[in-house]
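Good morning,

Attaching, inline, the backbone tokens for the sequence recovery test we're adding to the shared suite. The designed sequence is right after.
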């Protein structure tokens, strides 16, 4: 609808410079510039490289998103940006760009939570989230079960990983198997050729006395590494596809079982799965089967919207405008450890984890100037 809020969202919490434009719950543009190839040879994301890449990509990616959406920057009703959690220097580039555009265009600014954005993005595909919604959030840095009454104001954690995140486990297992970085997509592909029942890897925190909604993937990761190591020591070939499939089965079994249990225990008949690991084909399949059996409606965005992107930030920003939430103040800062309960950052001085000036090697100052020039020197 033409009267729904038109919002541009900026995401720079890790290695993806994402800029999305959303009107209400309709996606108009989703531009992404990734520095993933620059990190691959280090086996993980290098924060300084990510910050520099964001700085170079920011203004062109914003321009590309505006062109694709066919809207003018002056038409926007707001600018949303990931304020945390994430890499401090990388976040600062996005926050600085968002502040510069908001100031130059005289638009309200919304600093939002990356994790809540991963949930809200599903509105672009399946319409407004029901209240309450159970969300299984599985990414490279987080694995949580969250109960939300209203994605703009109320997200309650029921459980989380006590050690590694699910995506981290995929990345580490891929490294052990020599499959490269990031590990999730390649393990997913390899697993299709393997037998998921060939190796009985452990299911963490699945005993009767274990916390029902918490996760643990560190023991599983170590079990995979030991199993592979034993094979190599014995001079035997490692059946990579079988290891990938059996590992993936263990992760998805635990995630889906606990998510369905949380829904049943709380009497919630909707489950949303978000975050990079929600792109996993086996997780999607198993979640569908188990939800169907339990009478739960499953909502999972298409894989391209599960991994980090700007559309998810725009989706949450648009919802903030729609629900009349207070914009962030002009001195909004990044918070690298922003808790999931802080869906948006309306008040001043939330700079706790950002590392202060210089955390990004001066990149945020540069992006201010670029944004200013891109808009023709001012308003
Ligand atoms: O949400 P995301 O893009 O970034 C973070 O906020 O962390 O998630 C990235 C994580 C990585 O660990 C990556 O290996 C994992 O999501 N991932 C996958 C798949 N695609 C990405 N894990 C399993 N299967 C996939 N198809
Ligand atoms: Zn993410």
């Amino acid at each position: 609808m033409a009267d729904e809020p038109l919002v541009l969202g900026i995401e720079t919490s890790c290695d993806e410079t994402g800029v999305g434009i959303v009107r209400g719950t309709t996606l108009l543009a989703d531009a992404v510039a990734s520095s993933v190839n620059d990190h691959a040879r280090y086996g993980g994301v290098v924060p300084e490289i990510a910050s520099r890449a964001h700085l170079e990509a920011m203004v062109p990616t914003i321009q590309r998103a505006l062109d694709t959406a066919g809207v003018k920057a002056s038409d926007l009703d707001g600018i949303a940006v990931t304020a945390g959690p994430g890499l401090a220097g990388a976040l600062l580039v996005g926050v600085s760009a968002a502040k510069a555009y908001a100031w130059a265009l005289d638009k309200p600014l919304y600093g939002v939570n990356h994790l809540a954005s991963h949930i809200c993005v599903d509105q672009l595909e399946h319409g407004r989230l029901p209240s309450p919604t159970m969300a299984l959030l599985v990414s490279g840095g987080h694995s949580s079960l969250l109960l939300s009454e209203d994605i703009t104001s109320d997200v309650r954690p029921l459980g989380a990983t006590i050690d590694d995140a699910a995506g981290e486990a995929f990345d580490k297992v891929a490294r052990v198997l020599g499959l490269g970085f990031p590990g999730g997509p390649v393990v997913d592909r390899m697993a299709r050729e393997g037998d998921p029942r060939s190796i009985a890897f452990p299911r963490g925190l699945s005993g009767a006395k274990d916390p029902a909604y918490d996760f643990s993937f560190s023991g599983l990761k170590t079990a995979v590494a030991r199993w592979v190591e034993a094979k190599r020591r014995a001079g035997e070939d490692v059946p990579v596809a079988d290891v990938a499939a059996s590992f993936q089965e263990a992760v998805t079994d635990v995630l889906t079982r606990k998510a369905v249990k949380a829904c049943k225990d709380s009497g919630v008949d909707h489950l949303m799965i978000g975050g990079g690991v929600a792109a996993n084909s086996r997780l999607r399949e198993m979640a569908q089967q188990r939800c169907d059996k339990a009478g739960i409606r499953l909502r999972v965005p298409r894989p391209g919207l599960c991994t980090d992107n700007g559309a998810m930030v725009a989706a949450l920003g648009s919802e903030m405008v729609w629900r009349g939430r207070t914009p962030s103040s002009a001195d909004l800062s990044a918070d690298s450890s922003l808790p999931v309960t802080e869906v948006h950052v309306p008040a001043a001085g939330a700079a706790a984890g950002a590392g202060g000036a210089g955390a990004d090697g001066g990149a945020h100052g540069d992006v201010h100037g670029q944004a200013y020039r891109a808009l023709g020197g001012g308003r």
